Amino acid sequence: MGFRPLKQGGHWACALICAAALCLSEMPSFAQSTTTLRGKILSFSGQQLTVSTPAGDTKALLTENTVIRTEVPVDLSDIKPGMYLGTTATRQPDGTFLASEVHIFSEDQRGTGEGHRPLGSDPRSGATMTNANVERVEDVTVKEIQGRLINLKYPGGEIRVFIPPKIPIVKRVMADQTALTKGAEVSLQTARTSDGTPAAAQITVRAARR
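Given the sequence above, the corresponding structure tokens read:
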């Protein structure tokens, strides 16, 4: 039996299909470009986050896809082989690097920014940024300073980094909206939707300086 042409209710079905198509066309979609900024939370109300940055206040909407992480201070002894981390460091005369801070990525961030490069925020300082996998960890003493010497491996290279005690070392862990408190320092990655609304893709709540 073939299909029968729509009669009396046909125009209603057509109208519903057209309305659905119109609604889909009007739903905001995310653009490909993202913006990363850093600042302090001024307020979080409903699903709107307001952050004070050096360039001014920025508002962003949280969605069901927004990823929130917090940074937890950890000890030097917590660094283990197999971790994926990032470190800011300066090359030493013997070819090793001296770390000034370390952040251990959450496992879902493995591979983020992988590689070794000059520090983007201050390329003339001689400091470098390395995001890589920890291959080996050794407890060593350098110039009477006890610390850890780690081998970091990334595609195309490997470096050795000495991590002294008492530098900032943090680990990123998954969190929820309760971490978004007034005054907290955050890194915020936003993507603009097709209607121009900035939406928060990722938020990292920074650890308080010790």
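The radius of gyration is 24 Å. Try to locate this feature in the token string yourself.
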